[in-house]
Amino acid sequence: MLGTVTPMTPPRAQTLTAVLEAEIVTLDPHFTPAYITRTFGYMVFDTLFAMNGAGEVRPQMVQDWTRSPDGLTWTFTLRDGLKWHDGTPVTAADCVASLRRWFTRSALGRRLGEATATLEARDAKTFVLTLRAPFGLVLETLGTTSSPGPFMIPERLARTPGTERIPEIIGSGPFVFRREDHRPGDRMLLRRNTAYVPRPEPADHLAGGKVVRIDALDIRVVPDGATVVAAMRSGEIDYMQYAPFDMLSVLERDRRIRLVNFSGLEQFTGHYRTNAASGPFSDPAIRRVLLSLVDQSEVMAGMGLSDRYSRTCNAFFICGSPYESDVGTEPMQRPSIEAAREALRQTRYAGEPVIVLVANDLEAPKISSEILADRLRRAGFNVDMQVMDWASVLARRTRRDGWSVFGVHALGVDLHNPLTNSVIGFNCTGATTGGFHCEARLTPLFDAFAAAPTLQERQRIAAEIQGILYEQGIAVPWGQFAQPAAHRAQLHNLITSAIPLFWNVEKR
Description:
The protein is of the alpha+beta class. It folds into 2 domains: 1-261 and 484-508, D-Maltodextrin-Binding Protein, domain 2, CATH 3.40.190; 265-481, Roll (Dipeptide-binding Protein, domain 3). Helix content is 27%, strand content 21%. The protein is built from 15 helices and 21 strands. Strands 8-9-10-1-11-19-12 form a 7-stranded mixed β-sheet. Strand 8 and strand 9 form a beta hairpin. Helix 2 (92-103) packs across helix 3, helix 10 packs across helix 11 and helix 14 (442-451) packs antiparallel against helix 15 (455-472).
């Protein structure tokens, strides 16, 4: 048993108890791209713009805005009623300082920052962004879901360098964080912000009116999924962000539980990431063998996922996104061990070890990497499969040697845009976390994508980027899938989102 609600919960309050993907360790919303910090950010902080369920960017803290005919000057006016959790009003100067700090932490934000000539507050509610060069994604950037998100914080906190964590957690969002309500390693209690003024329109994913209908959100730290499922079935837990794959059939049959499935941008896409710095996969021809070797259907089956929760998808910027394309996917359409073996014979491969890193504490990376290791052996590679925890995989991948390939997955809301896609975001940057790839042709294409004035032009550029990625074998997708959330049946009006959202929901 997980125990009962303790005195940190408001008396007679209606409290929703949730277990999220991991413990919320980093509370500074700009400091890390960790998904769990982004989830915390949307609860405690707010954004200038936000994405609705159709993927459209809508104003959130902003009331209205104008754009000059040449597209270089943008003027934004904040809506009435915005207050920080300490009771002080949100000002345009706060937003300017927040954006400047976020520009230093986000790949997409950095591009907007580089295109910016000036960013200044005109008065308490108005600020002006003047560009030095065309940038076709101004609103998409200010409303991006990519992590770390463009969350607003008070100016005095935004002066904290991006390399340091802010000393206080003060937002303007629908829930309030108090340090005394946080017991690291155990639980965090977020209380409803009674001073929050929601937008008048209905809630629509991350956009619209964030009306909180519960008094408190009690976030528990419970690492074992089976324990959480048992607690949910007994009524101790109301919501679980990731239902274990091997327990989906059990939960589907329980009338007290509802599973929340996801599609499109709300799904995960898995990729095999290769090391271009050393070993066999420093050769693009050998990397390209993976295109005909990887069988996405086998990986999805290995994870125990039916067609209800998964699909094969060769589009690098995911299926169901505006940038879905089939350019360069021909070798991937009919995966075959025999085809891969023949392709390998045409390369200079001479039996060097292929070191496959397998994370034994994360279900999807573990299964995907084990399946790849088996197929590599059958195709003629000399495989050295090394098993370790995920933290060790992350540490190992920063080295230029000692690894060849591993499986990883991320959400479509991040992967669908070439400028926020974490698989290729480190291209030619010298960063030690992206496989040390440097394809010079991609850099001007990223710049052109950012400057493109229309969706059609961005789609053309994204398809060209995808063609180069597959030509060079920089990464290979291993499937697109959902890891459903689960909740008790008495929760109503829960917003369907892979980023857990707890406004609008009612507990009856």
